[in-house]
Amino acid sequence: MTAPEVCFEDLPAGRRIALGSVVVDRDEMLAFNRRFDPQPFHVDEQAARDSLFGGLCASGWFTASLWMRCYVDGLLSRAAALGSPGGDEIAWPAPVFPGDRLDAALEIVAARVSASRPNLGLVTLVGTLTRGDDGADPVTVYRGRFTGMFGLRAPGGTASA
Amino acid sequence: MTAPEVCFEDLPAGRRIALGSVVVDRDEMLAFNRRFDPQPFHVDEQAARDSLFGGLCASGWFTASLWMRCYVDGLLSRAAALGSPGGDEIAWPAPVFPGDRLDAALEIVAARVSASRPNLGLVTLVGTLTRGDDGADPVTVYRGRFTGMFGLRAPGGTASA
Lengths: 161, 161
Known about the structure:
Two copies of one chain form a homodimer. Chain A has helices at 26-36, 40-43, 45-49, 60-74; strands at 16-23, 86-91, 101-113, 120-131, 139-151. Chain A has 161 residues and is of the alpha+beta class. Helices cover 22% and strands 32% of the residues of chain A. Chains A and B meet through α1, α4, β2 and β5 of A and α1, α4, β2 and β5 of B.
C-alpha cells in the first residue's frame, strides 16, 4: 500500500482548496427527492411552482451529497482520510434547481493533533457549493462546517502552511 | 386544498415524536456510497475490514437521508412544512452497518414565530437515529439539530403543549 499523498500535515488552517464543479441532473435529483425527501416542493411540479421556492428544487441532503462527492474526488481520494464525527454548521441559504452548475470548495479553519491519539489529526473545514448565476454575484447554496479526521505522515507532526 | 393536520401551533418545545424505524439495505447503501461518498471504508469490503470501522459502513449522508425520510413519513407529510435553512449540529457518533435496524425520533427544543413574518413559525428540533443493539443499551448513530419552518394555523398564534 502506497502512502497517501495528502496527510494531516498538508491541511493547515487557512488553506483553501477548489473541488471542481457539478451540474444538477434533474432525473437524479428527482429520484433522490422521491426516495429520501418526498415533500411536495421536492417532488410535485405544480406544488413546487406554487411554493416559496417557485419550482422543483433539490433536497438539502442531495445538495450536501453532491458536495461530498466533490470533496472525495477533489481531496479525500488522495488523502489519509479517516472519516468524520460530524460538524456544527449546515446551511442551505438558497434553493438548488435542476441544471444549476455549482462550484465546490473547502477551506481549512483549524487543525490540531488529537490529545488522546497522537497519530490522528483533527481538521475543521468549511465546505461550500456556490452558483455562478451567469455574471451576477455568486450565490452560496450550501455551507457545512465539519471535523475531518486525517492520519499524520509523522506522528507528533504539526500542520504548516 | 385541505388544511394541514400539523401546524406550528402543534410543535411546542418539549414535544417528542417517534418517527418509526428503518432497516439499512446493503445494496442501497452501497449504491449511495459509490455515487456520493466513495471512500474505501464505504465501498471496498477488504479496505473496510482493515479500517477503524471494521466493515463496510454507511456514508453519513446516507444515514442523514434515511432519517429525513422517516421525518417526512412521520411528520412532514401531514404538516404545513416550508423547508429548512439549516442547523447547528450534525453528528455521526457511531458507524452504521447493513442490516442495522434504526429507530428515528425528533424532539422540539424551541419554537418561536418569525419576527419579520408573522405567519411563519421557526422550530428548532433535534433528530436522532438509534440502534437497539438487541438488549444492549441503545446506541445513537445520528443526531442533527435543525431549524424547521412551519406555517401557522392562525397568524399570531403561539405553540402550546
